Amino acid sequence: MISNARIDLHIFCLMVLMVIFIYIRRNKKKSFSPRMLNWVILFLSFTLITEATAWRTESLYKNISYWFYVISLSTSSFQTVSWICYFDYKIYGDIQALKKRLKYYAVAPAAILSLMVYNFFRPGIVFEIDQAGTIVWGWGSWLPPVIVYVLILASLWFFLKNRNMIEGRLTQILLVFIVLPIFGSIIQQFTEDIPVNWAMYTLALLMTFISVEMLELYRDELTNLATRRQLENRLQFKLKNKAPFFVVMMDLDNFKSINDTRGHLEGDRVLQAFADILITSINPEDFACRVGGDEFMLIIESREDHVMHEVIQRINMRVEEFKKEESFFELGVSIGVEKVETPESYDLDGLQRSIDSKMYEHKKMKKQR
Fold first, then answer.
1. Fewest CB within 10 angstroms: 6, 57, 261, 302, which?
2. pLDDT digit string (tens) for 183-198?
3. Bridge partners (DSSP) listed for residue 248
4. pLDDT of res. 218
5. Neighbours of 319 (CB within 10 A)
6. At residue 29, what are phi and psi to the nearest 5 degrees?
7. What is the DSSP secondary structure assignment for residue 142, as one 8-state letter?
8. pLDDT one-digit tens code per residue, 204-222
9. How many CB atoms lie within 10 A of CB 48?
10. What is the mean pLDDT of residues 138-147?
11. Bridge partners of 137?
12. How far lies 94's CA from each of 87, 121, 159, 226, 278, in Å?
């Protein structure tokens, strides 16, 4: 019964992982980030399958069971390393830098593999099969999980050391990634017959997919910015909190003339370029959205006026640089700013009307000039 409960839990975890995997594979946006998450799913699925096979064959085929245990333990850190690489890319967005750091992340799998090779020549360090054909765990059976947790904590320290690069949503998921598997391992010590740690890994991965990748999959297809619906969800959340923030609305001046004189493909390229300008001008914790057409909005996570002014100054400066490089002399940006000092005094519709009005006042003033 206990063995069946183990395998049933593994099958349930596999089903959850396969649903996520298929969902990502069927989505049309083939960016690097979800592909990395699929590698995490594949490695974790491999561990679940090999471990479940080792349990199932333990009473019938001792030698087969032994080798599945060897494979399972030897590769038990692969999903952790791939997950750390996933977070590395999500935080820094630099594939080349990730490749350089990969040699440090690979230390843990290399150490565990070396331990298993040593156990092959000196059985009993990690585990062995006794004369009765039963798996006997040695004193070194605690080493593979400890090596993995050292890797996790070292990576967490590295990420938090550069926490200015991490937006709030990723910080929460990083903590979930750390807390759930460790919590599962602690429970595992008291419920040895039920593999809670892999269930916690699966739960953390599911939360990562819902909280991070689901938002990425539904971004604006042209600019890769957040959509209006995501903006409204974020504003509703912000208005329930007490922390002040800025909302900035922007509209591209004379954009229609670009479409009329240079064509819609050129207009799309301008929108993509402006989206890149926004992303490179805001701080990592801020939020950029394409509301629709040539209208964009920002949420600036600060109460300091100078922070907002610096962001707008960077945007205007980069727009001027783009105009000089591309000869778009007629392109301009109308901007409306609302400082939300007491969020509880606003509602979503009222805030949007206020910021919309301020943006059109700026546009009208520029035309009068």
1. 261
2. 766 666 566 566 677 7
3. 298, 337
4. 66
5. 20
6. -85, 110
7. G
8. 788 778 777 776 666 777 8
9. 25
10. 85
11. 127
12. 11, 41, 14, 21, 19
